[in-house]
Design a protein that fits this description.
Shape: globular
Strand content: 15-25%
Number of strands: 21
Number of domains: 3
CATH superfamily of the largest domain: Dipeptide-binding Protein, Domain 3
Number of helices: 17
Structural class: alpha+beta
CATH topology of the largest domain: Dipeptide-binding Protein, domain 3
CATH class of the largest domain: Alpha Beta
């Protein structure tokens, strides 16, 4: 990676202090639902139509793992803390907290009068119930490992202990939640804003296990509440009158649409049918839309990458995996295909994450060379050594990607590079609907698959612990006791130097074993009308509408 460009991104992330603001710009002036105002100006109706881009696979915080679900959940649920417009984690359901001197015990005091959207009180017991429920082996939470920071959380999830009372979370009373950790965790407060740490309404869940499947039964505790969910069509949320900070919330209604097609999304935006488009934008249209101001780009802490099924020949051969990775011209992809300011990824953890000193990415450098001539020569050598000289005899394989989003052009470019640089001619492409695609990946029913990861908190761990042997996000089939131990060391140690050294070794191991094929580091691309103000598009987490409003125009 060119260090000048890397430093520019790191600087932009620092200046933005994790949150990108949304300023006015020129664009289509049509606004749905406006009423006449004084002096000919229209008084804005506080309603938005937002294209989400895909149907959320679930609205159960304990089960969600994708951006569509988490975007909606960010607005209808709330954890102990919440990321605010200044990029800080502020008190939310909790009004205060304190930690023990050794950093192992956290005690949270909940606010007075906090309620679920059905009027029931939110209690510390709901938090305890939610966290233990997500850790229960039979529940099958893909993010259960995010709760391994709790004392005995991992042992309970793996069935090594069966008594949930041994897990380090306990409601001392309705308003006091005591949390005991396995080891001091510098970023634990940020984790309490993540969906897996949201409370769920114990009484409602126990009465109806399918409580989160439909609008009529879904109960939340966030700034908004869900009132309508027509699956694969729209999801409607309105201001939650029972929310503790309701006076801050200006929007009365948000209608989320689920249109996956990029061309349709742009047309709907230009026609004034949507105010915010979080869905796909065609790569071919991006330069025009960015130039006109009809599309925006903000920093995003994330990596776009490919994974291969390491349990399946020929991808169980590390030489094949390395050859495929080396034969990809990442610079050509970001300059000629994605074209939105993404940076080519020659490593996995993106820039912008602090190390003991400096930046984690800068300190580690690249694990893949930028010299394509040398890369291709090495890739050919490795492929021949693996038994496929100039691609001869390489079995047919499929690149799998989800149909929501502009993934086909990237897949087509990589398909062409493997043909030109390695002689592999029988790679085909296949797309699947989002929910099906996720399940296909989880079940290891693929050859090569598109993947992407957005950071959940500001630490390298958010990009590294998903490749442990027992992670619900490890869809590669690769397992390593050595890697598991490196991650465990980083999680156990209170010494920042020891933590970071273990994570640097772990990332290097991902490339020694060619577990991942990084393509580029994300930017956040979206469309937003100039009268839409205050939407948070943070580099970590999902879009938050708590502080959003529609400006008179």
């Amino acid at each position: 990676m060119k260090m000048r460009r890397l430093r520019a991104l790191v600087a932009s992330l620092a200046i933005l202090t994790l949150v990108a603001g949304c300023g006015a710009r020129t664009g289509d002036e049509g606004q749905q639902g406006s009423t006449g105002g004084p002096g000919g100006q229209q008084a804005a109706k506080q309603e938005l139509v937002v294209n989400l881009g895909a149907e959320p696979p679930t609205m159960d915080p304990g089960l969600m793992e994708d951006h569509s679900s988490i975007t909606v959940a960010t607005n209808i649920f709330e954890g102990l803390t919440r990321l605010n417009p200044d990029g800080k984690y502020e008190a939310a359901m909790a009004e205060s907290w304190e930690t023990s001197e050794d950093g192992l015990v956290w005690t949270f005091k909940l606010r007075d009068g906090i309620q679920w959207s059905n009027g029931d009180p939110v209690t510390a017991h709901d938090f305890e119930f939610a966290w233990k429920r997500a850790l229960a082996p039979e529940f099958g939470s893909p993010y259960a490992y995010q709760l391994y920071y709790l004392k005995n959380g991992e042992k309970y999830n793996k069935g090594e202990i069966t008594d949930p009372d041994q897990v380090g979370v306990k409601a001392l009373d309705d308003k006091t939640l005591q949390v005991t950790l396995e080891a001091p965790t510098p970023y634990f407060l940020s984790l309490t804003a993540f969906p897996t740490y949201y409370p769920v309404p114990k009484k409602v869940v126990e009465a109806n296990p399918n409580w989160a499947a439909e609008a009529a039964t879904l109960v939340g505790n966030g700034p908004f509440k869900i009132v309508e969910w027509v699956h694969n069509d729209k999801l409607v949320i309105v201001k939650n009158e029972n929310y503790w900070d309701k006076d801050t919330v200006k929007l009365e209604k948000i209608t989320f649409l689920m249109v996956p097609d990029g061309a349709t999304n742009v047309t709907m935006f230009e026609n004034g049918e949507v105010d915010v488009n979080l869905g796909a934008i065609p790569q071919a249209d991006l330069p025009r839309l960015l130039a006109s101001g009809d599309a925006k780009v903000t920093p995003q802490l994330g990596t776009y990458y490919y994974i291969v099924n390491t349990t399946k020949p020929p991808f169980n051969d590390v030489r094949v995996r390395k050859a495929l990775s080396l034969a990809i011209d990442r610079k050509a992809i970001v300059e000629n295909v994605t074209r939105a300011g993404e940076l080519p990824a020659y490593a996995f953890v993106p820039p912008g994450i602090p190390d003991v000193s400096g930046d984690f990415r800068q300190n580690a450098g690249n694990y893949i060379s930028e010299d394509m001539e040398a890369n291709i020569a090495e890739a050919k050598r490795l492929l021949a050594e693996a038994g496929y000289p100039d691609g001869k005899g390489f079995p047919p394989a499929v690149i799998l990607y989800n149909q929501e989003g502009a993934h086909q052009p990237v897949a087509e470019a990589i398909q062409a590079m493997w043909k030109q640089n390695l002689g592999i001619t029988n790679i085909t492409l296949q797309s699947q609907e989002w929910k099906v695609f996720l399940q296909t990946r989880h079940n290891l029913q693929y050859d090569i698959a598109r993947n992407g990861w957005l950071g959940d908190y500001l630490d390298p761990m958010t990009f590294l612990d998903m490749f442990t042997s027992d992670s619900g996000q490890n869809d590669t089939g690769w397992k390593s006791k050595e890697y598991d131990e490196l991650i465990a060391t980083a999680k156990r140690s209170a010494d920042p130097q020891v933590r970071m050294e273990a994570m640097h070794k772990a990332e290097k191991m991902l490339f020694d074993e060619a577990v991942v094929i990084p393509i580029y580091f994300y930017v956040n691309k979206f469309q937003e009308k100039p009268w839409v103000k205050g939407v948070l598009h943070p580099p970590i987490g999902a879009e938050d509408f708590k502080w959003a409003y529609v400006e008179a125009h």
